[in-house]
Amino acid sequence: xxxxxxxxxxxxxxxxxxxxxxxxxxxxxxxxxxxxxxxxxxxxxxxxxxxxxxxxxxxxxxxxx
Length: 65
Hints:
alpha+beta, 3 helices, Amino-acid N-acetyltransferase, L-glutamate N-acetyltransferase activity
């Protein structure tokens, strides 16, 4: 998990992306340990808001790069 996250952080920074979003139903604690914080569905980019499945009850997390 950490290797993949570090790769995504590096790749995002190289493409001038300043924030990463993840949705999880089981790994909330791990993502928080990595610096992510919980946000509401309204925080997602517009195109992603419409795709959010409320029935899954996923937690939405963000990480500022």
